[in-house]
Design a protein that fits this description.
The complex is a heterodimer of chains A (517) and B (296). Chain A has 21 helices and 15 strands. Chain A has 517 residues and is an alpha/beta fold. Among the domains of chain A are: 72-193, Rossmann fold (3-Layer(aba) Sandwich); 335-514, Rossmann fold (3-Layer(aba) Sandwich), CATH 3.40.50.1980. Chain B is an alpha/beta fold and 296 residues long. The termini of chain B are far apart. Classes of the chains: A alpha/beta (517), B alpha/beta (296). Bound molecules: iron/sulfur cluster.
């Protein structure tokens, strides 16, 4: 297809209009040609995506996985305090929600975690009979039960592969029951089979929030900033965002973890929707603008000093607080820049000693990919390759920009495939390698290795990554991981290798990829 | 225990599978065979004509009740001692009927129905097209060993038969059922026979029996009976008896060669051309009158 203008070509790259008359969103594959397997130059990926030739492939063997229900939603929706969650699913689909309950309990109440922290968790426990006969009545019963047990303001109904495959009439059940109960019913179509790109779960969630929960704005709240956060941002990030916005008289409407139903209802009244992660916030931001005229921006994320400055400036623009933001930036720089400088000089010193810049292999989601490469640059680090859970055309332009700023790099796109990651770690042999907690743990290597981020439930100050305190904390964390090798040493001595030599002798980290002709 | 002859009978909805199957069961029972007929259709009316037109509770009803299932709950005796079982299914538009068939057949296995009743013949009467994995269960893994299909000269019926052939071909190498013959139903006009014969030769299959349309069937079914019960001396009853004899001795089992979608289309078009020519000839007085009333 030939496009007359660049704009035309761009708009063809992904579906921009959100259709709330539909039960749910299109999946990321349809919406933005999402893929989750690729290894090569970022420039090559860009070229393929631009020309429309980017293709997803099968893996002949996959190590681990997560679905849009169990990985992206169950853990987060369950924290919404005045709501209840019904998993319309076999009981196993909802099990990971229970694990996360424990994780979040690690956050001390003093740091703002609600003391009353119970899961309002229910499952329709679908079985063979329900598959054959449908389980609409069971769902309705569960809804009434949820209303009675918890008297919630909203009831989220999460779907599963089973309901998707047999074509359960969720909307029908919702329409039947809604007039008879107080809680707002919010069906989310997030069945695992729908998409290979787990981020479809994000979009499905926002679609439901936009369709069923957000209210028409009664008044504009000019000091309210919508901030949607993805799983890997930590409790400290949350505090940092609140601190920064609080200093200039703004309030962060932080969703979804630990938000109230009212916070969702008010999304339409905010002055702006700001991203922590563009690919996570995208659908919500576009929807809020389209339906209620709430402005938004998608880049940058507040990671690293420059990006945080820019992030605040954007917010300043939409809230009429540009002067306050400039003053804030100045004040913060006075406190944090010397600390950043100290970290940078330490990295520079190590670099001088070894005769080349310190290299870090980053592993990240596509949102982080954009934010983190420039941050490494700030610290004086280089990255021989980046890793991303998945890729889709939503970030195409920004990826182009990153490449033009920091130069070309290798890019591994893979969801949860630790072996592929360990393969390129061994091949590229960086000074420091970062692993995603979901992507397999520590590698046995004598050089630096640490986790790339902590989970939401990690309240420790060193786990911060957002804003200014985050930039310093994360910089320090990386420095520490580079210097301290005792963990690696012990690991090397005491444990066997995870993979055989054979694996590392393969020239291609995507050895298990099945090519489609 | 002598070897059970287990046969699946497929065909497009409304083509007369249940009529064929229950007449076959009745004829076999008449010949002294112990027969089980299993209806695998959510409509669950396969065995009605063996039971005075009355429906029986289905296997899936029994599963749904939640009570432990006994054989008495699902096996009912009909004409000539034929044991009738209906798999059943969900309400229209709800749940998954295919999974229902799988669950029902699994239950029959667990309950050791065949060991218990030691039938000579088991007939599975399966809904139309092979629409999903559930409906293909009787031909997979050799649940049934032989497959027959009921078809008329109607294109959609032939289309369904061709689809069935694809299913058989798919599972043939992994122990699935093999094909044993076409039951050509409602063949009254010579051209209908020609069409089915031609289809059979194209797909490398054989015809087990030609069954003409008949008033006897219409009348017997109004009473909820098979032709064998209603009018044992009728020609129609004899046709089914002949089919029953074929079924008992037919050892032919082979993999049909289904037509590709495009081939099938070309084939159907060639027939409609021929029919048109014949019709025009008939109008101009040169062809057979009979053809003029054919609708294919
Ligand atoms: S929704 Fe599907 S993929 Fe997700 S946990 Fe349930 S069965 Fe597994």
């Amino acid at each position: 297809m030939v496009f007359a203008t660049r704009d035309e070509a761009d708009s063809a790259l992904y579906e921009k209009r959100i259709d709330l008359s539909q039960a749910t969103c299109p999946n990321r594959e349809q919406r933005a040609n999402g893929i989750n397997i690729f290894y090569g130059k970022a420039s090559d990926l860009i070229e393929k995506a631009r020309s429309g030739c980017l293709q997803n492939h099968e893996r002949g063997f996959a190590q681990s996985s997560g679905c849009s229900l169990n990985f992206y939603l169950s853990v987060r929706v369950g924290t919404i305090r005045d709501a209840a969650t019904i998993f319309h699913a076999p009981v196993g689909c909802s099990s990971s929600a229970l694990g996360y309950r424990e994780l979040f309990r690690g956050v001390p109440v003093e740091l703002g975690r609600p003391a009353e922290y119970d899961l309002h968790w229910m499952t329709t426990n679908l079985r063979e009979k329900d598959v054959v006969y449908g389980a609409g009545d069971k769902l309705k019963k569960a809804i009434y039960e949820a209303q009675e047990r918890y008297n919630p303001k909203a009831i989220f109904i999460l779907t599963s592969c089973t309901t998707g495959i047999i074509g359960e009439d969720i909307e029908g059940a919702v329409a039947d029951v809604q007039p008879h109960i107080d809680a707002r019913l919010v069906p989310i179509h997030c069945e695992g089979v729908r998409s290979r790109i787990v981020q479809t779960g994000y979009d499905a969630f926002w679609h439901a929030v936009l369709k069923y929960l957000v209210k028409k704005p009664e008044k504009k709240q000019t000091d309210l900033v919508n901030v949607a956060s993805m799983l890997s941002y930590t409790w400290q990030d949350r505090l940092e965002i609140q601190r920064l916005l609080g200093k200039i008289g703004l309030r962060a409407n932080l969703i979804p973890e630990f938000a109230t139903v009212e916070q969702f209802q008010q999304l339409s009244e905010a002055a702006v929707t700001a991203p922590l992660c563009p690919t996570y916030t995208d659908y919500l931001s576009r929807g809020l603008e389209q339906e209620y005229g709430v402005p938004y921006f998608l880049y940058p994320s507040p990671m690293g000093i420059t990006n945080t400055d820019e992030w605040l400036r954007q917010i300043g623009k939409y809230t009429g607080k540009s002067d306050e933001v400039e003053a804030l930036i100045e004040e913060e720089h006075r406190i944090w820049m010397p600390k950043m400088q100290a970290i940078r000089s330490e990295f520079d010193r190590i670099a001088a000693e070894k005769g080349s810049k310190v290299s870090v292999l980053g592993s990240l989601g596509q949102g982080r990919l954009l934010a983190q490469m420039p941050f490494f640059d700030e610290l004086g680090l280089v990255s021989p390759a980046a890793m991303s859970q998945d890729y889709d055309n939503l970030i195409l332009e920004e990826l182009e920009e990153v490449v033009s700023r920091v130069g070309d790099f290798d890019l591994l796109v893979n969801t949860f495939q630790a072996a592929e990651q360990s393969h390129i770690t061994t091949k590229l042999d960086p000074d420091l390698t970062l692993t995603c907690p979901f992507q397999g743990g520590a590698y046995k290597r004598i050089k630096g290795a640490t986790r790339i981020h902590a989970l939401r439930g990690d309240p420790h100050p060193w786990s911060a990554q957002s804003g200014y305190t985050g930039a310093v904390a994360y910089g320090n964390f990386l420095l520490q991981a580079l210097k301290s090798r005792s963990f690696q040493k012990t690991l090397k001595e005491k444990t066997k290798d995870s993979y055989r030599d054979w694996w590392f002798k393969q020239s291609n980290p995507l050895y298990y990829m099945k090519r489609v002709v | 225990m002598t070897k059970i002859r287990s046969v699946a009978i497929y065909g497009k909805g409304g083509i007369g599978k249940s009529t064929t199957t229950s007449n076959l069961s009745a004829a076999l029972a008449d010949m002294g065979k112990r027969v089980i007929q299993i209806g695998c259709d959510p409509k669950s009316d396969s065995t009605n004509n063996l039971r005075g037109g009355r429906s029986i509770p289905t296997v899936l009803d029994a599963i749904r009740s939640g009570k432990p299932v006994e054989l008495d709950d699902i096996v009912y005796e009909g004409f000539g001692g034929v044991l009738c079982i209906e798999a059943g299914g969900p309400e229209p538009g709800v749940g998954c009927a295919g999974r229902g068939i799988i669950a029902a057949i699994e239950l029959l296995r667990q309950k050791k129905v065949f060991e218990e009743y030691k039938p000579d013949v088991v007939l599975y009467d399966v809904l139309g097209d092979v629409v999903c994995g559930g409906f293909s269960v009787p031909i997979r893994e050799g649940v049934a060993e032989q497959v027959y299909t009921v078809t008329s000269a109607d294109f959609m019926a032939i289309y369904a038969a061709n689809n069935l052939f694809k299913g058989i071909q798919k599972y043939a190498s992994s122990g699935g059922a093999l094909f044993s013959g076409i039951i050509a139903n409602s063949v009254t006009l010579p051209v209908q026979r020609e069409i089915i014969d031609d289809f059979a030769s194209r797909t490398g299959t054989t015809i087990a029996e030609y069954v003409p349309r008949s008033d006897t069937i219409t009348r017997s079914e109004l009473l909820g009976q098979t032709a064998i019960e209603y009018d044992p001396d009728s020609t129609q009853a004899e046709v089914y008896r002949s089919l029953a004899r074929t079924l008992l001795k037919n050892e032919e089992r082979y993999v049909p060669k289904p037509l590709e979608a495009a081939e099938l289309k070309v084939w159907a078009e060639s027939w409609s051309d021929r029919l048109l020519t014949k019709k025009n000839d008939a109008r101009s007085g040169s062809g057979s009158r009979e053809i003029a009333s054919t609708s294919t």
